[in-house]
Fold each of these.
Amino acid sequence: MLRHSIFLLGEFTRRDFRGRYAGSILGFLWSFVQPLWMLSLFTFLFSTVMRISPGIGERTSNFAIFLFCGLLPWMAMQEGITRATTAIIDSAGLVKKMSFPSELLIFAVVLAALLHEAIAAGLFFLVLAFTGQFNIAGLWILLIAVPLQIALTVGLGLAAGAFHVFFRDTSQIIAMIMMGWFYLTPIVYPMGLVPLQLQPLLELNPLTVLVTLYREAFLGGSLPSLSFLMPLILSAVLALGAGLWLFNRLRPAFADEI
């Protein structure tokens, strides 16, 4: 049973990864073009137009590098949660006709998003090497950051995907939440620009912790204190547990609703 589930997960992930660019001219190259476009757009807007810089205390003075460290986990989470929201509805035929663990559809889109992040990270390594800021000393921190990121994404994706079967407005609500979450996370601005009285609130944001871990990992930093990590750890554990419980609770009614 486990082997069969792993096989199905691999097939669903491969289908999602390949199907996204099926029929397009650039095909797989979009995996490189899209992160480069987002990086260029935000760099121009925030460093050239608004003239925001990483500021004192950050591990780099290069805004593009500072920005991309934060965009990497964000893009994977945003894509994973957004696509997980509609994953069950998008595969309605399979859910109705086949008896299989439908949560694999959620896992597959999250893994596909992680593959795209890995491609973007490989591109980022080249940029770091070119700018002379490549430092492997902190890369081990990703061994902590990535599993927590996956747990948080899967948990929220399971809950959103289950809700969307019954409430079709869920995808619109998730889009609004993700937009707000992006700007409430110090991705395009350094924490130093946030008023001191608001900084403790932003540190309770699990994505603030995740972005910090990525910056420490890619820029040769060190692991923050356990107290700083707790919002991310607790959010990941709670989201995964609650997401699995809710999905399993609502799954018997999926076929009737879709």
Amino acid sequence: MKILVTGASGFLGSHVVRKALQHKYEIRAFVRPSSSLKNLEGLPIEILAGNLHSQEDLKKALSGCEWLFHLAADYRFTSFQGNQVMQTNIEGTKAILQAARESKIAKIVYTSSTATIGIPEDGSPGTEMTPISKKEMVGPYKLSKYLAEQEVLKAAQQGCPVVIVNPSAPVGTYDSKPTPTGRFIVDFLNRKLFAYTNTGLNLVDAEDVAEGHILAALKGRVGERYILGNQNLDFKTILEILSQITGLPAPRFCLPHGAVLFMAYANHIFSKNILRKEPGIPLEGVKLSRKKMFFDPSKAKKELGIPQTPVEEALKKAVKWYQENGYVRG
């Protein structure tokens, strides 16, 4: 069986491609013409470059495929090109859903995000049923994923065979950009983290997330959402695990959220007006860190059987990959 993977050259996309190959599927990778193909080097797959907003390109990519994994997205927590983020994540999703319906694709797995899932006021982990409103969307990335997911849910109600997966904070190999989660690991390895703030993340091995995509296509119920996550850890604990893995000291000082937010605003303004590049401190990420981003993956564990590789092992793989691929000085 042939499947199409959009965003195949990216962090999660390349993991989904590898996992699908392990399951003996035939892969067509849909990438932007400007995408680096390093994450796909040496893989026995078909690569097709095209535009996510071109129905001609999309129908060509979908031709002969039975399944679609739509992972293509603009993943930036702080961006000076907010319109571009919105265009890619919302309009691109609408375009490929239309093409998939016309191409009679049997199963679609749409990669959303836990950014679309609420956090209970009592601090307990969010679930697929935890409500969230549009007014809670911080920045273009989170808003775009929320609105795109609404389009996917609407399509499912109209008969489109789509399942939604919501990865939490994946870590592992091939995070070449890197993602916001990967960036703080790289900063730790380069001794750039001198303090931390009282927040938390749900970490999960990127390979488990990729397997979760395959399981969603095989077992997922149409129109349902599945949190692909693993362990909830506060930021201090994550840094201590990284310290144990690397032998580097973990930062000792915990900064109040207000102080970090002030630094993020200052860095944002300086980067935008002086450096004219993406800031080192993601303003939207800092705003989100006001709450611990804890989630409950029980539904995906029960209905899909997503693996739960120990987070320590995922972090070890990430550290080794960054070290071996030139992200760490010295």
Amino acid sequence: MLARVVAAAIVALVGLVVAPVPLAAAEGDGQCTQVVDPITNEVKWVCENGGGDPGGGGQNPGGGSSTCTYAGSEIPCSLGGGQWSSKNACYVIPTPVSPQPAPPPGQTDQDGDWHNCIQPAGYLGSNQPVWVEAGETLIDPAVLAQRAIASMNLDPITIGIVPEPGPDRVGLVGLPVWMWVEDQAPNTYGPITASASQGPVSVTATAKVSSIVWDMGDGTKKTCTGPGTPYEDRYGKQDSPTCGHRYEQMSDDQPDDAYQVTATSHWVVEWSGGGQSGTIEFDITTEPLPIRIGEAQVLTQ
């Protein structure tokens, strides 16, 4: 049989069949091995060092996730250092098989290499190596999604707020504060769509802000799910109907006598392409904006 084809061996009379090809789990999680119950034919992953079940993940660093589909079920798009290949219906490990079997008919040793092809957890298969042509790239659509996001040139919002910032501007304790997105541009609030391609694979991603967390500088954080309502003089002392706050103390004990206000936009990106789809989430925070708060003085004679 071809080298490194997964071969089963019964380790006990009613034991497990163990695939001798170890798959690396997530970094730092040790090694994972595919095992098959000879009675139920159930396939599981056994991981050393508490690696967990790599078949149930799909999480990427930074809070994103990507999913691939196989036999009507979602599976992780990468596993054991391999990338899911819809063409071959398995995880293709980038390290060539050694020693190399004879090339397929019509091919030579210079035309490509055999690579290990591992079935996803929960599915039985031959796990036989597949031929990868020279120059053929095992493209990860999730990487293309990140490239599409980078091309969007996303920026933090421009803060709209009353009371206004400035050395000659002072709000009052107890009066309503209004917060909003000053400029709802596609690259600061969304939605914005971009694509990235490599070889035959193209991925399209659409990003938009799902919520904004306003850190008011006084220990209060307000989460607003919309862009907020711009203040107008006709609103007087009304509270903002969508995103507001009231300061209970003066800011004279703060650095520069001002509360430092920031707005953190939570972006959600939906992407698809290359037979995969996923969601990537991340935050972008503004620079601090100083807001001074004082108290009204009452004059008596």
